[in-house]
Amino acid sequence: MNFEQDATEVAVTKEQLTELSEHAKKAADLEARILIGEALIADLKKELNMILRMDIPGVLDEVGMKDFTLTDGTNVKIVHKIKASIAKINMPEAVEWLKDNGLGDIVKETVSVLMNKIPQETKDKMLEAITELGLQSELAVKVNANTLSATVREQKEEGIEIPEDLLGVYEWDEAKLTRKEKK
Fold first, then answer.
1. Is there a single domain that holds both residue 124 and residue 41?
2. How many domains does the chain have?
3. Domain end: 30, 65, 100, which one?
4. Measured distance CA(54)–CA(36) in Å, rounded
5. How far apart are CA 56 and CA 77, in angstroms?
6. Measured distance between the N- and C-terminal CA atoms of the chain, rounded to whole angstroms
7. Are residues 132 and 146 in the same domain?
8. What is the pLDDT of residues 54-80, one digit of tens each?
9. Contact 66, 174 (CB under 8 A)
10. Do 106 and 98 form a contact (C-beta atoms < 8 A)?
11. Which domain holds residue 59?
């Protein structure tokens, strides 16, 4: 963009162009600084996760402790975490396993129908119309990762065996820091 050429087409003063240019340069500088800051935050989060998930649990395990309190009153405790997320390729088999094992209520099945230019009365009879009218439809089967994680945690607590690979189960110990409230 050539500000001086554009300025001849509109009544713009040199001071206004200078101000606009300064604002644009400042915005570009801020965008660059934000990108650097976001990269720094990402690095700090990785370092923190390494300390909380590896270093502290490892040392506490070596000395046979599950928790301790720092001199400032901060409590450090090891908590066991579980996450589960089904890979797309495993979804059919995982859904079958969940249903066969009484956990089908966490499976969410949705039917989508393309109904462009279809009269409202047909839309009202959607479930019947899917087969009767031969409409294109799509069945989406999903299992919410948070719901699955909670279900897996409950099953493990009850001692029920689950197919961890199929359900994408990941477990780890992590240090949790609870700071003493200042009064």
1. no
2. 2
3. 65
4. 27
5. 9
6. 58
7. yes
8. 999 999 999 999 999 999 999 999 999
9. no
10. yes
11. 1-65
Measured CA distances, 59 to 15, 67, 121 (Å): 63, 11, 67
Report how far residue 14's alpha carbon sits from residue 26's, in angstroms, rounded to the nearest whole number.
18
pLDDT at 112: 73
Is 61:68 a contact under the CB 8 Å cutoff? no
Is the pLDDT confidence value at 139 over 70? Answer: no
pLDDT of 119 over the 80 cut: no
Instruction: Give the C-alpha distances (Å, rounded to integers) separating 23 from 7, 10, 105.
Output: 17, 19, 55
Token reading at 161: 């065996």
Spatial distance between the Cα atoms of 96 and 107, rounded to a whole number of angstroms: 10
My answer on whether 133 and 98 are in the same domain is yes
Residues 166 and 83 in one domain: yes
Distance CA 32, CA 38 (A): 10
| Of residues 169, 151, 142, the one with CA closest to residue 103 | 151
Residues 42 and 122 occupy one common structural domain: no
3-state secondary structure of 114: coil
Displacement of CA 152 from its chain's centroid (Å): 18
Q: In the predicted model, what is the mean pLDDT of residues 27-47?
A: 97
